């Protein structure tokens, strides 16, 4: 395959060590821990509805539904002889690509909605997209995924964000009002 020939021409021990280290920033374990931290920070800031939306979307779509999808499709990984790291489980869609797309994509989206300066919105979007693309590349570089696995994970992650954001804008006001009724001061919506 053409992508493997390109990859094989750029493999070095130092690059492989760096890619192995950086790919962990897209692992389910890392994403779960970071999601918990983000939700705690949002709760401290009294943005309960946003925290529930963010945490629920990342954990449900980025981790749980991805596993369901993997076990439904049951696609085998590429030939283990070409792996530069060890990996288990099915290949499609890439869990790293899905979790990374949902976590970093939602984080970027939240920041884009929050910051006022256009140049900063652009920087946030570009940085978020770079992180997602790098994690996707790392999985192919390490030989544990086909390019279609990471692209499928990316598409599943983006679809999750679009669907979740639509649901969020439908339910945020009623949830905010419900919390207000229960005397919980939610600052997810500025009134």
Describe this structure in words.
- This protein is mainly α.
- The chain has one domain (2-74, 90-181).
- The chain is 73% helix and 0% strand.
- It contains seven helices and no strands.
- Helix 2 (13-23) packs across helix 6 (118-141), helix 3 (28-44) packs antiparallel against helix 4 and helix 6 (118-141) packs across helix 7.
- The chain is elongated and about 60 Å long.
- It starts with a helix and ends in a 10-residue tail after the last helix.
- The model has no long low-confidence stretch (mean pLDDT 84).
- InterPro entries: PAP2/HPO, PAP2/HPO_sf.
Secondary-structure topology with pairs:
Elements: H1 2-8, H2 13-23, H3 28-44, H4 48-73, H5 95-114, H6 118-141, H7 147-181
Helix pairs in contact: 2-6, 3-4, 4-5, 4-7, 5-6, 5-7, 6-7
Sheet with the most strands, sense and barrel status: none
Number of helices: 7
Unreliable stretches covering 5 or more consecutive residues:
none
Helix content: over 70%
What portion of residues belong to β-strands?
Answer: under 5%
* Silhouette: elongated
Helix and strand pattern:
HHHHHHH
Question: Structural class, from helix and strand content?
Answer: mainly alpha
State the end-to-end distance.
55 Å
Number of domains: 1
The chain-level mean pLDDT equals 84
Query: What is the rounded Rg?
Result: 18 Å
* Number of DSSP E strands: 0
Task: Supply the key terms.
mainly alpha, 191 residues, elongated, 0% strand
Quick overview:
By secondary structure, the chain is an all-alpha fold. The protein is built from 7 helices and no strands.
């Amino acid at each position: 395959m053409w992508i493997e020939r390109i990859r094989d021409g750029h493999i070095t021990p130092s690059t492989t060590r760096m890619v192995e280290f950086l790919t962990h920033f897209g692992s389910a374990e890392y994403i779960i821990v970071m999601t918990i931290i983000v939700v705690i920070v949002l709760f401290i800031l009294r943005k309960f509805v946003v925290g529930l939306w963010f945490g629920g979307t990342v954990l449900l779509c980025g981790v749980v539904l991805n596993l369901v999808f993997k076990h439904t499709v049951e696609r085998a990984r590429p030939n283990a002889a070409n792996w530069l790291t060890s990996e288990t489980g099915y290949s499609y869609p890439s869990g790293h690509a899905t979790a990374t797309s949902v976590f970093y994509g939602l984080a970027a989206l939240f920041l884009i909605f929050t910051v006022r300066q256009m140049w900063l919105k652009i920087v946030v979007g570009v940085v978020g997209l770079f992180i997602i693309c790098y994690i996707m590349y790392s999985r192919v570089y390490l030989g544990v995924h086909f390019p279609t696995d990471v692209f499928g994970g990316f598409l599943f992650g983006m679809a999750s964000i679009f669907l979740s954001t639509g649901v969020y804008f439908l339910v945020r006001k009623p949830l905010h009002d419900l919390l207000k009724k229960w005397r919980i001061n939610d600052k997810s919506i500025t009134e």
